[in-house]
Amino acid sequence: MSVDQQDQLGSLKQRTLQLGELFDKQQQAQAAIDKLDAQIAAVKPQAAQAGRGLVVLFSGGKISAYAPKSRFSFVYDALGFASALQSDEKDVRGNKLTPEQVAKLNPDWLFVIDRDAATGRPNAVAPQKILTAPH
């Protein structure tokens, strides 16, 4: 049930249909896919005009940025945001950045994934504190 990183959206749809079949919920699975397709269709034209985006993962006080065709590339590949990363480097584990480097990239949109909050890490530093700290 893993997701193909080279085709995240297609893989997500395929896995949704497989789960729908497994649990005899094919209609609900297809309805969820149709809803997702409609939402993507609504966002994509706006994303194309919205400027550059940057997907970052915060974990343990560290920042990792993700490029198109990487593990969090849905924002770029499916939604159509241009990447603020100038590099062709597509590190699946993310490109390590400092807050200063994020500021220098100056993305129009910053998509933040807070792993510490998702995993309930105690005493974690919030991403906004890291990004807004004096550099």
From TrEMBL:
GO biological process: iron coordination entity transport
Domain of life the protein comes from: Bacteria
Compartments in which it is found: Cell envelope
Gene Ontology CC annotations of this record: outer membrane-bounded periplasmic space
Main location: other
PANTHER family: IRON III DICITRATE-BINDING PERIPLASMIC PROTEIN, PETROBACTIN-BINDING PROTEIN YCLQ
Assigned protein family: Belongs to the bacterial solute-binding protein 8 family.
Protein name: Uncharacterized ABC transporter solute-binding protein yclQ
The species this protein was found in: Serratia marcescens
Source organism phylogeny: Bacteria, Pseudomonadati, Pseudomonadota, Gammaproteobacteria, Enterobacterales
